[in-house]
Amino acid sequence: MKVNETVRELLLDVTADKSYNACMPEELCAQIRTMTDDVFSSDEEFEAAFYTTLEQMCNDKELGRSGRGNIICGAQLGYITGTFRANAKGFGFVTPDARYAHLYSEDLFIGADRTGGAMMGDTVMVRITDSVPAKGKGTGRSGRGKRGTLSAPARPERRTEAAVIRIMTRALTHITGTLYKELPRYKKGAARWFVEPDNDRITAEVQIRPNDLGGAAPGDKVEAEILKYPKPDYPTAQGKITHVFGTAESKQANYEAILRENGVRTVFPAEVLAAADKQAARPLSTAGRLDLRDKMIFTIDSADAKDLDDAISLEKTDDGWLLGVHIADVAEYVRQNNPIDAEAYLRGTSVYFVDQVVPMLPKALSNGICSLNGGEDRYALSALISLDRAGNIIGCECRETLICSKIRGVYAELNDILEYGKASVHYEKYAMLFPEVYPEMVRLYEILYKKNRAKGALELETAESRFVLDESGFPVDIVRRERGVSECLIEQFMLCANEAVASWLYAMQMPCIYRIHEEPPEDKMQTFAAFAYNLGLDIRPLKRRQLRPGDLQAVMNEAEEKGLAGVLSTVMLRSLSKARYSRAQGIHFGLAAEFYCHFTSPIRRYPDLCVHRFVKAILHGDMDTGAVHKAEVFAEKAALQSTECEIRAMTAERDIEDLYKVLYLEDKVGLVFDGIISSVTSFGFFVELDNTCEGLVPIGSLDGFYTYDEKNLTLSCGYRQYKLGQRVRVELLSADRISRKIDLALADEDEMHGGRGRG
């Protein structure tokens, strides 16, 4: 039977909604019909599609029938659809689709024998099988110890178990990895070829026939297309090699493989480049624009930034200030549905690596006509934000403008002036901003910062890496990235603009792509509260019936006073929900903001470009009822796509950063480093070195029988205990560029007391 996807999605949404009352098919048919007026030309056409789809969905367990014949959600019968996430140890988890969030607030555990051949990212249907009782502790054994057994994977206090019964959509079509040759066991046997995936969460190897090697040799980094997927009784996939990156030991081969694995598009189609060149050549005009070229507007970015998409200005008023946040008017050049837009939609975001960037837009736009370069006229979409003396937003006006940035500001240079004043070597470059403009901006920044802290915006202590490269692009040092006043000032001004524009669009009841950050799950907050309590912190703020961001920040403030902020930040980050894009307005919990969107970076983020289009359509009077509906439909689609692209980009950025850290440490095997325990698991603990590199100390390398306490995140053996935030000294055992993994061991006691030099 042929399923109508529109009807299917509506049936899933309606029956999964917590307000749905089970009803007979006829009643449900009438309810769904009201939602499909613009899809079907007649009632007869709709009813045929409805009953065909309903019957198939009942057969597929997506829906069910009660004893009285009412249609019910499949979840009520224990059948859930979601996304499968594999673990390197063979088991996995399924994140239920968002429509089932009110039924299942946590992921479903899938045992290694119940994955049904599912691979990372697959959309699957599962059947609920059991609910695991509370398990707070696990055990592990040392490789040198005399007793103990390896622990089972630790689980939360209560974990719902399920089994995969159907793979609905395959996520992986290609796998990157290293080709190796398996010699025959017998003289007459034939050698076999396999690709071992780089991603250890892809547990299935890919067998390659000799005719499908594509010229690859053993030890090459390759991409393989999957021709046959693994099955429960045969866990190996079959495929053919479609791309050879080079030897797996090559830095460039690993770099390119990471991009390919994460679906990062690195080459612009010729028609996109041609369209961008044509747009970039358009002459500028003041027609229909507010001319602000005489205003003191300037940019502040890092010294190596190429795409300058935000500039600022500030004027004092009787009530407080008029803050101008002037953003490159990318929507003027990238119209919806043209080739540039289609490519930007697929990319979703620019991807920034250690020494390179894969831009969302061609350079003719991102580094050219859309970049707010100093001394050059540019189109901008300006948010002119009125603030009172307490830093409250009292008004926002959006205008299409023509600006000319007076200075190409650099964070480090302005920070130097703030510290040394006229004695700074950079003072002359910025003389026009002193002693009035920039100090006044700093004053407003401090007010905005204090206001955000007062309302409870979260401040987490996280470490960012800065790589020092030699002439060949090889890492020669890694240091922690420091942020000064100027970086924080720009951040606060951009936050202010994002909040002001989101509030403006919401007040006008116009479409928007919001950036939302939902309240943390209750079970994770309970775990976080228990951990904070065991650190000796006052957790009374966390016991409110309605948790507020300020309650978490109150605990964080105490942790900061006691030198525990780094430890608590790590656990808090794991307890919070993930921020995402949404057409529907929702809170941003971490920022303590009721309305928030991304408006300030349309060169590098697709949601910002969409928000610009909505704003410009309002300014042009193009938002009639039909246009609003179309915009809302597109906003829903773009929000989902942008969230997925963001996740891919973040994964690629993290993987490449891990690669560079391994490259830096390769020649330092045997050296001893100081670090802090950043994560504790049932199989060992991770240590973050002072240079931000992170590696695993496996439980097998520890003497004795260790018990894992999941609530307190500790490994204990008698009086010896390893816990989150503990300072340790470790020896580097290996740094493998193929797996991008770093292995560590605790340094011997004499080394811990100065027996060897530090790395």
Structural account:
It is a single chain. The longest helix is centred in the C-terminal third of the chain and has 41 residues, at 625-665. This protein folds into five domains: 5-75, Orthogonal Bundle (Arc Repressor Mutant, subunit A); 78-169, Nucleic acid-binding proteins (OB fold (Dihydrolipoamide Acetyltransferase, E2P), Beta Barrel), CATH 2.40.50; 174-261, OB fold (Dihydrolipoamide Acetyltransferase, E2P); 270-513 and 595-652, no CATH class; 669-755, Beta Barrel (OB fold (Dihydrolipoamide Acetyltransferase, E2P)). The chain contains 16 helices and 34 strands. It is of the alpha+beta class and 759 residues long.
Blueprint of the fold:
Layout: H1 5-16, H2 25-33, H3 43-59, E1 63-65, E2 71-73, E3 79-86, E4 92-96, E5 108-110, E6 123-132, E7 137-141, E8 159-169, E9 174-182, E10 192-197, E11 206-208, E12 220-228, E13 237-247, H4 251-261, H5 270-280, E14 290-291, E15 299-301, E16 310-316, E17 320-328, H6 339-347, E18 351-352, E19 357-358, H7 363-369, E20 377-388, E21 393-404, E22 408-410, H8 411-420, H9 437-455, E23 465-469, E24 475-480, H10 485-507, E25 514-516, H11 522-534, H12 549-561, H13 565-575, E26 580-582, H14 606-619, H15 625-665, E27 672-681, E28 684-689, E29 694-698, E30 705-709, E31 714-717, E32 720-723, E33 727-736, E34 741-746, H16 749-755
Parallel strand pairs: 5-8, 11-13, 14-21, 15-22
Antiparallel strand pairs: 1-2, 3-4, 3-6, 4-5, 6-8, 7-30, 9-10, 9-12, 10-11, 12-13, 16-17, 17-20, 18-19, 20-21, 23-24, 25-26, 27-28, 27-33, 28-29, 30-31, 31-32, 33-34
Helix pairs in contact: 1-3, 4-15, 5-7, 9-10, 11-13, 12-13, 14-15
